[in-house]
Amino acid sequence: xxxxxxxxxxxxxxxxxxxxxxxxxxxxxxxxxxxxxxxxxxxxxxxxxxxxxxxxxxxxxxxxxxxxxxxxxxxxxxxxxxxxxxxxxxxxxxxxxxxxxxxxxxxxxxxxxxxxxxxxxxxxxxxxxxxxxxxxxxxxxxxxxxxxxxxxxxxxxxxxxxxxxxxxxxxxxxxxxxxxxxxxxxxxxxxxxxxxxxxxxxxxxxxxxxxxxxxxxxxxxxxxxxxxxxxxxxxxxxxxxxxxx
Length: 245
Known about the structure:
The protein has one domain: Glycoside hydrolase/deacetylase (TIM Barrel), CATH 3.20.20.370. About 35% of the residues lie in helices and about 15% in strands. The protein is built from eight helices and nine strands. It has helices at about 20-30, 45-55, 90, 100-120, 140-150, 165-180, 195-200, 230-240, and strands spanning about 5-15, 35-40, 60-65, 125-130, 155, 190, 210-215, 215, 225. Helix 1 links the parallel strand 1 (about 5-15) and strand 2 (about 35-40).
């Protein structure tokens, strides 16, 4: 089975490692994904760049901005960093965190630098999103929207279905409506594989829906999702695809 019409099956974390890069290329070649988001502050970045330029199957590429795990590429305020020089997720990932104008400017410059690193490698970028979805937090949504508008890129929505807290759902609905009004949205909906498959084919198919995967290869060369193993299993089963490479 092919990926359904109006579905963007996006592979996050392209560039994260050699095995992730191999898995994502394999997924493109087998029609398991049709979109990806590239990390540019990783050891595997240039390997991913080489794969992009040498494989026409890799299309619809975005930047997966990392403000959560690895190291920044600008000389940013140590306030944002942990003791090893990587991002301090307790600072950048805090739901209630707000930043000063100077701090927002520094974060803007880091996001722009990560986007430009891909552009400098002559990669055509269509969208941006973020590692661990930090772009949907109150402190970041405005900065990411600004970058998306300036670079004429689309921006991933927050999760569009209700799961648990109504307050969280309402917040996500409000920011998504703002993105849609500004015509920055990459899709009409953003869902997990599990949620999408629980509704398919009775809903979602008429609207452009983004689904997220994290492809990787295990020690035996089998395709896995390094974030949630059930995600890859269910998606491959849906498409009628084998797990092995």
